[in-house]
Amino acid sequence: MKPETEQEYLLGVNQQELERLQFQHRVWKSVTDNFFDRLNVQRGWNCLDVGGGPGFVAMDLRERVGEKGSVTMLEPSQYYFEWFQRRVEEQQWTNVHAIQGTAETAQLPKEQFDLIFVRWVLSFVPDPELFILSLKKALKSGGRLAIQDYYYEGLSLYPPGAFNTVADIMRAYYRSKGGDAYIAGMIPSLFRKNNIRLLELTPHCLAGGPDSDITEWAGQFFTMHLPIMAEKGVLAREQCDAILADWREHRNSPDMLFISPIVVDIAGVKS
Questions:
Q1: Has residue 129 been placed in a domain?
Q2: How many beta carbons lie within 10 A of that of residue 131, not counting itself?
Q3: Which residue from 23, 36, 235, 251 has the fewest beta carbons nearer than 10 Å?
């Protein structure tokens, strides 16, 4: 039997999902890298990557902070935690660490980190304010809390078809698990309420044709996860089949355009 945290992991924990996450990281890497550039992540910083999965962002951060800095990854899944630990041991990195747990349950050091980064995690969290307060305690004064997450609008295919019902399905799926696919809209008010000064709010939407990386990213996600959602009763099997048939038809058309949901960079400073 899998640990409880893996049973509850909304998108699954397995080798196939790990490989999808690796491709996802590559597709969105320039967006994240540019965010780190604007945050002026420096050598010598101590950074925490929250809900980092297999640790692809943590490995990128290590390159930025250098040998005098440190990177800690916080991850609830035993599978991803152990995969990351093996990479760290293979590379003999002494300034990269991992903690198994969540922001709410882990015993994080107080006022330790210059940067805490959270990508596509907060939208799954039932109590976002508790999550943010737990991380705020671990930030140094003047430290940055940087979040990348959804404001789940925009997702669509052109020309329109059955696929364009997927945004509603995804929003309902998040809600059914206690999450919020519009979480990016709430974060600035949570920052203000908890004395975190808003530093940046920048939206991103990627788009591409049938052979683009962003379309392949969407294809990998929806062809893997929509059938699982149908099995769980989130949508009818007939609706799932219609959506995937529409997706395949679009992928074979040179005139198709995929538009991603909006992802927002939000950063705040602890006063």
A1: yes
A2: 21
A3: 23
Cα angle: 129, vertex 151, 254; to 5 degrees: 155
Q: Which range of residues forms the domain containing residue 80? A: 4-152+178-206+261-270
Task: Say which range, 5-19, 88-102, 211-225, 229-243, has the weakest mean pLDDT.
Answer: 5-19
Number of domains in the chain: 1
At 57, phi and psi to the nearest 5?
A: -70, -40
pLDDT in tens, 162-211: 999 999 999 999 998 899 999 999 999 999 999 999 999 999 999 999 99
What is the dihedral sign for C-alpha 212, 214, 220, 222? Answer: negative
Q: Where residue 111 sits, what CATH number does that domain have?
A: 3.40.50.150
Closest by CA to 144, choosing from 18, 41, 260, is 41
What tens digit of pLDDT does each residue of 24-41 get? 999 999 999 999 999 999
Q: CA–CA separation, 29 vs 27, rounded Å? A: 6
In degrees and rounded to multiples of 5, residue 194 shows phi and psi of: -110, 25
Beta-ladder partners of 268: 145, 198
